[in-house]
Design a protein that fits this description.
heterotrimer, A mainly alpha, B mainly alpha, C alpha/beta, A: mainly alpha, two-stranded antiparallel sheet, globular, B: two-stranded antiparallel ribbon, 13 helices, 76% helix
C-alpha cells in the first residue's frame, strides 16, 4: 500500500512538471497552430536564469537565510527573462514566416532550439559579469528553501516541494483559465485562434495578441523550470529536450489548445510513466509516453478534452 | 531500348563513382559518402513530406530497422561458401542484405503508416516521432541486437560506388514516381486532400504507399551507414537524426528532388568544413538554418526542380 | 639543397632547435557538444593539460606536441568521419579518444586500417581492443575494462561489506553501465549473493523515484548504480528523500566534483571503485590535481585523469620509440610496462588493456576517502 501511494505521489510530482510545460505549448498552439519546438529550451533558459539570479542575490552563499522575498525575486526574474525570450523568438523567427506554410516556421523553431542548446554549451565568454554561456557541465541549482516533510503517512513523505509545485501549477492553470475566458485579452486570444483574418478585421491587434501569448507561455515554462530545479537541483543545457517533447505529448494527450486538458494530460502522463517504471519494465519508460500517445490519438484524435473540428471545404 | 534508357544513369554513374573512390583524397571520399547517404535519406523522406505533404518525423526509426537487418544478415553470411570468389560473395550478400533491410523497413512502414496516416499535420509528426523513439527503446532492450552498445564488427562493405549507385537509384525512383499516375495522385493529396478525395483518389492508400516506399529507402540508407562505420548502434538513430533529415528536405524545398539532393550535399559539406570551429560549429549550423529559412521560406527551389529554373528563364527570354 | 641549408642555418641561429621543427600532432576526438559534452570536455582538458606540461619540459627531445581536437557531437558516424580526417588529412601521429565505447568502436577500425595508433582513455567495452577474438593491433586503452571493474565491486560488496542481498539500477542507454552491471551480477551471484531486482533509468532523466520506490520495497542491503555522476547525484538525493538508508555502490563514472556539489550530504556512506584516491599523497597525483584546478577551476574527474595519462603514455612511448609515429610507436605503446600515471601503475597486457589495481573509495562529508584496494 505504501509503495502504491508513493508511486502516486511521485507520478503526480513528475506530471505536474509536464503539465506546466504543456500549458505553454497549448497556448501557443491554440493561437498559432504551431509546435513551438523551442519551448523546451525556453524552459532550460528559465532554469539558468534562476540560477544566475539566485547566485547574484547570494542564495548560494554560506549561511543564507531562506526568505520569501528572495524566492519570489528569483521566480519573477526568471519568468521575466523567459517572457522576453519568448517574445523575441516569436518576433524574429516566427512572425516573418507567419503567412508561409507552417513547416517553414517549424524549421526555424528547430533552428532556434538548436541555437539555444548549443549556444549554452559554449565555453564562457571573457569579460561578462556572469559565467555565460554556462558550458555543458551540469550545474547545481542553489537551494532557495530547504525541503521539509509536511506529512508522513505509511512511510510516504509529502514534502513541501511536492505540495508547492502542485499548488503553483494549479494556481497558474486557474489564472490562465481566467485570462482566456474572463478577460478582454482572452476574448481577443480566442478570436485570433478562431480566425486571425476576421479578428484583424474586427480591430483586434493580432500581432500584439500573439506576442503576449508567447510571452505568457514562455513565462510558464520559466516557472516550470524553477519548480523542477528546486526539487531536482541539476540543470544543464539539454535539460529541456526530453521534458519538452513529453510535455508536447501531454498537451496532445489532453487535447491541444485546452488549458485543463494540458493539466490533466500532464499528470496522467506522469502517473502512467511512473506506474510502468515502478511496476513493469523501467527500461521502457520513455517508450511508454509515446505508446500512450499513439493509443489515444488512434482512438480519440482530438485528445481527452479537445473539440473535434470538421474540415471545411 | 527502354530498359537501356532506365539503366543509363547507373551505367554512366558507376565508373564515375569508381574513379572518385580510387583517386579522391580519403577525407573528401568520406564526406562524399556521407553526403550520398544523406541524399538517400532526404530524397526518400521527400516522398512523404514533399510529395504527399504529410509530415513524418520518424525516418531514423526506419533507418535503424534497415541497418540492423542488413548487419545481422551480412554477419551471418560472412564467409564465402561453395567456391564463390570473395568479392562476388561479399557484394552479393550485401545486395541481398540491403534488399532484405529495405523490405523489412517497408513492412514496418506499412505497420506504422496504416494506423497513423489517418492523422494529419502535427499529430502525424508527433506520432511518427513516437514510433521512432519506441523502435529505438525496443532495440536498446534486446540483447540479441547488442543493447546499448549495438552490433560491432560489421564487415566494411559500403563503398563510394555502392552509396553512389544507391543514391542514384533513390533519385531515379523518386523522379519516376513523380511522373507516374501514382505520383500525380500523391501530389493531389498534398495540394488539397479534400478535393483529391472528392475526385476519387484513395488518399489514405497513396499516403501509406508513399510512406512504405520512403521507409524502404530509409532502411537502405541505414544499411549503408552501418556498413561504413562498421557499427550499428541505437545512438545513431535518435529523433535528432530524423530532424536533421527533415531539415534537409525543407531546406531543399518540399517536393523538389533536386532541392533535397542539393540540400543534403550542401549541409553535409558545410558541417564538415566547419569542423575546425569546435563547439561553435553547431551554433553556426543552427544560425544558418534560421537565416536560410527566413531568407528563402520555400526552401532553395520551392516545389520546383533545378532544371525548371532554366526553363523559366528561357521562356522569359523568349517572351 | 638550398632549403636544407637554410633550415640548418635557422636551426643554428635560433636558441631552440624545436622552432624549426613541426610539432608532433596529437589527434583528439571527443563529444564537445551534445548530451555527453561534459565528458568530452574533461577528456580534452586532460590531454591539453598533459601537452602543456610536456611542452614546458621541452616536449619530445625538443619537438613540441600540439593537439588537434575534433568534435563528434556524440555520434558514432561523426567520430568515424573525424578519425578519417585526422589520420588522412591532418596526418596525426596518434589518435586519442573517445569516452563512449560505441564511438570508440566506430573509430577503431579506421585507426587499424590506416595503421595509426589509437589510445582510448576511457572506453571500457572489451570489444574496443579485441574484436571477435582478435586483438586490434593498433588500438589500446588506459582504463579498466568492464569485466574487471564490475567484479571488483562485487568482491568488495560480498567480501568486505558482507552483503547478501543487492539490487541493481543501471543506465539502459549506456554500454558502460550495462557492462558493469552484467559483470557485477555474475560475480556477486558466484560469490553466493542474491540480486533482488534489476531496474534501469536513462541518462538525463530528472526523476528516478519510480525505480527507487520499487527497489525500496524489495529491501536490498545496497544498490549497485554504475552510472555517470550527472545522474547518480540526483539518484542519491532522491533515495534519501524516500528514506532509503542503504548505501549506493558505483564505478569510476562517479568520480567528479560535480557529484558532491549536486548530491551533497546524501552521498554519505556510499562506495565506488576508482583508479586513484585524491587522498593519495603521491606527488604525481597531487600535482595533477593542483595544476588542473588552477587551469580549469574545477577538480578533475576520472575522465580527465585518464585522458591525462593517455597523453603521458603516448609521450613516454614516443620517447622510447625509434620514431614517434607508425610501427615503432605502436610497438613502444604495446611495450608499456609499469608506467606511473595518475590513475595508477599501468602495464598494457597482450589484449592491449591496462592492468592496474582498483581503489575503493568511501564517501564521507562530501569527500571520497580511501577504503581499500583490489588487485586484478
Amino acid at each position: 500500500m505504501s509503495e502504491f501511494l508513493q508511486h502516486i505521489v511521485n507520478g503526480v510530482s513528475v506530471g505536474t512538471n509536464y503539465a506546466l510545460i504543456a500549458l505553454g505549448y497549448t497556448m501557443v498552439y491554440g493561437v498559432l497552430k504551431l509546435i513551438n519546438f523551442a519551448h523546451g529550451d525556453v524552459y532550460m533558459v528559465g532554469a539558468f536564469a534562476g540560477y544566475f539570479i539566485a547566485h547574484a542575490i547570494g542564495v548560494a552563499a554560506e549561511g543564507y537565510e531562506p526568505s520569501l522575498f528572495n524566492t519570489a525575486l528569483v521566480f519573477v526574474g526568471s519568468m521575466g527573462v523567459c517572457a522576453l525570450l519568448g517574445y523575441l523568438i516569436e518576433r524574429l523567427a516566427y512572425r516573418p514566416l507567419r503567412d508561409r506554410p507552417r513547416l517553414t516556421s517549424l524549421i526555424t523553431a528547430i533552428g532556434i532550439s538548436f541555437l539555444l542548446e548549443y549556444g549554452f554549451q559554449l565555453p564562457a565568454w571573457a569579460g561578462l559579469p556572469i559565467e555565460f554561456p554556462p558550458g555543458p557541465s551540469p550545474r547545481f541549482f542553489p537551494e532557495l528553501f530547504p525541503r521539509t516533510v509536511w506529512l508522513e503517512v505509511w512511510d510516504v513523505a509529502f514534502s513541501n516541494y511536492d505540495v508547492i509545485a502542485l499548488g503553483t501549477a494549479l494556481a497558474l492553470m486557474l489564472a490562465l483559465q481566467f485570462i482566456v475566458y474572463r478577460t478582454k485579452f482572452g476574448v481577443a486570444m480566442r478570436a485570433v485562434s478562431f480566425d486571425p483574418n476576421s479578428a484583424a478585421l474586427m480591430g483586434i491587434p493580432v500581432d500584439r495578441v500573439i506576442s503576449i501569448t508567447f510571452a505568457l507561455g514562455s513565462a510558464l515554462a520559466g516557472a516550470a523550470a524553477l519548480l523542477m530545479a528546486i526539487s531536482h537541483p541539476r540543470i544543464d543545457p539539454l535539460m529541456g529536450m526530453m521534458p519538452g517533447l513529453k510535455a508536447f505529448v501531454a498537451a496532445v494527450f489532453g487535447g491541444i489548445g485546452s488549458v485543463p486538458g494540458a493539466m490533466v494530460g500532464g499528470i496522467l502522463l506522469g502517473l502512467s510513466e511512473e506506474m510502468v517504471a515502478g511496476y513493469a519494465l523501467s527500461s521502457f519508460r520513455d517508450a511508454i509516453a509515446f505508446a500512450i500517445l499513439i493509443g489515444v490519438l488512434l482512438v480519440r484524435p482530438e485528445g481527452l478534452f479537445g473539440r473535434r473540428t470538421s474540415e471545411k471545404v | 531500348m527502354r530498359a537501356l534508357r532506365s539503366l543509363a544513369p547507373f551505367l554512366l554513374g558507376a565508373p564515375v563513382f569508381w574513379l572518385v573512390q580510387c583517386y579522391a583524397p580519403p577525407t573528401l571520399a568520406i564526406v562524399l559518402l556521407m553526403a550520398g547517404v544523406n541524399v538517400i535519406l532526404a530524397v526518400s523522406l521527400n516522398m512523404v513530406n514533399g510529395f504527399t505533404g504529410q509530415f513524418s518525423l520518424g525516418h531514423a526509426g526506419f533507418m535503424a530497422i534497415g541497418a540492423y537487418t542488413t548487419a545481422k544478415i551480412t554477419l551471418a553470411l560472412g564467409d564465402p561458401a561453395g567456391g564463390v570468389p570473395p568479392w562476388l560473395w561479399s557484394n552479393g550478400v550485401f545486395l541481398l542484405a540491403l534488399l532484405a533491410g529495405m523490405g523489412l523497413s517497408a513492412l514496418m512502414g506499412l505497420m506504422v503508416g496504416v494506423p497513423s496516416l489517418r492523422l494529419r499535420g502535427d499529430y502525424l509528426a508527433i506520432v511518427t516521432l513516437g514510433f521512432n523513439e519506441i523502435i529505438r527503446v525496443l532495440i536498446e532492450n534486446v540483447r540479441w541486437l547488442g543493447g546499448a552498445t549495438g552490433i560491432s564488427g560489421v564487415p566494411p562493405y559500403t563503398t563510394l560506388v555502392w552509396v553512389g549507385l544507391a543514391a542514384l537509384a533513390t533519385v531515379v525512383t523518386a523522379q519516376r514516381l513523380l511522373c507516374s499516375t501514382h505520383g500525380r495522385a500523391m501530389l493531389s493529396v498534398r495540394e488539397d486532400e479534400v478535393a483529391a478525395e472528392a475526385m476519387g483518389v484513395d488518399t489514405v492508400g497513396y499516403k501509406v504507399r508513399a510512406f512504405a516506399l520512403s521507409a524502404a529507402f530509409a532502411g537502405l540508407g541505414g544499411g549503408l551507414l552501418g556498413h561504413y562505420i562498421l557499427l550499428v548502434t541505437p545512438k545513431s538513430f535518435t529523433f535528432v537524426k530524423s530532424i536533421e533529415v527533415v531539415v534537409m528536405v525543407v531546406l531543399g524545398g518540399m517536393g523538389s528532388i533536386s532541392g533535397a539532393t542539393l540540400a543534403a550535399v550542401l549541409l553535409t559539406g558545410a558541417l564538415e568544413l566547419m569542423r575546425g570551429l569546435d563547439q561553435y560549429r553547431m551554433v553556426m549550423y543552427s544560425l544558418l538554418l534560421v537565416v536560410l529559412m527566413l531568407a528563402r521560406p520555400t526552401g532553395l527551389f520551392g516545389t520546383r526542380e533545378i532544371w525548371e529554373f532554366w526553363g523559366a528563364k528561357k521562356k522569359k527570354a523568349a517572351a | 639543397m638550398k632549403k636544407t641549408l637554410s633550415a640548418l642555418l635557422a636551426a643554428a641561429l635560433l636558441s631552440s632547435p624545436a622552432a624549426a621543427q613541426d610539432p608532433i600532432l596529437i589527434g583528439v576526438i571527443g563529444s564537445l557538444t551534445g548530451a555527453e559534452a561534459t565528458y568530452g570536455l574533461s577528456t580534452r582538458h586532460g590531454v591539453e593539460l598533459a601537452i602543456e606540461e610536456l611542452n614546458s619540459k621541452g616536449g619530445l627531445k625538443g619537438r613540441m606536441f600540439a593537439a588537434k581536437v575534433y568534435d563528434d557531437q556524440g555520434k558514432p558516424e561523426e567520430a568515424a568521419t573525424a578519425t578519417t580526417r585526422l589520420v588522412s588529412q591532418d596526418k596525426v601521429a596518434i589518435v586519442l579518444g573517445e569516452v563512449a565505447s560505441s564511438r570508440s568502436l566506430a573509430m577503431a577500425p579506421i585507426a587499424e586500417a590506416n595503421k595509426v595508433p589509437m589510445i582510448t582513455p576511457s572506453s571500457t567495452n572489451p570489444r574496443v581492443t579485441k574484436d571477435g577474438g582478435k586483438v586490434r593491433q593498433w588500438v589500446f586503452r588506459v582504463c579498466f575494462i568492464d569485466p574487471f571493474q564490475g567484479t571488483v565491486m562485487a568482491k568488495w560488496a560480498r567480501e568486505s561489506l558482507k552483503l547478501e542481498r543487492v539490487a541493481i539500477l543501471r543506465d539502459v542507454g549506456n554500454d558502460y553501465s550495462m557492462g558493469l552491471s552484467d559483470f557485477f551480477t555474475a560475480k556477486f551471484k558466484e560469490l553466493g549473493g542474491t540480486i533482488l531486482a534489476d531496474e534501469s533509468y536513462k541518462a538525463g532523466d530528472q526523476d528516478f523515484k519510480a525505480q527507487l520506490t520499487s527497489l525500496k520495497g524489495k529491501k536490498p542491503q545496497a544498490i549497485y548504480t554504475p552510472g555517470y555522476y550527472t545522474d547518480v547525484a540526483l539518484i542519491a538525493r532522491q533515495a534519501r528523500e524516500l528514506n532509503m538508508n542503504m548505501p549506493l555502490l558505483g564505478g569510476d563514472g562517479w568520480d567528479s566534483s560535480k557529484l558532491y556539489e549536486i548530491g551533497g550530504s546524501a552521498l554519505d556512506g556510499y562506495y565506488f571503485s576508482n583508479h586513484y584516491s585524491t587522498d593519495d599523497p603521491s606527488p604525481a597525483i597531487q600535482n595533477f590535481i593542483k595544476t588542473y584546478k588552477a587551469k580549469y577551476k574545477e577538480t578533475p574527474d576520472a575522465l580527465a585523469a585518464l585522458a591525462y595519462d593517455a597523453m603521458l603514455i603516448t609521450a613516454d612511448a614516443m620517447g622510447r620509440a625509434t620514431a614517434p609515429t607508425g610501427e615503432p610507436l605502436r610497438k613502444a605503446i604495446a611495450a608499456t610496462k609499469g608506467f606511473k600515471g595518475v590513475t595508477g601503475v599501468i602495464t598494457l597486457d597482450a589484449d592491449h588493456n591496462a592492468v592496474k589495481p582498483a581503489v575503493i573509495l568511501k564517501i564521507t562529508g562530501k569527500k571520497p576517502g580511501y577504503a581499500g584496494t583490489i588487485k586484478p
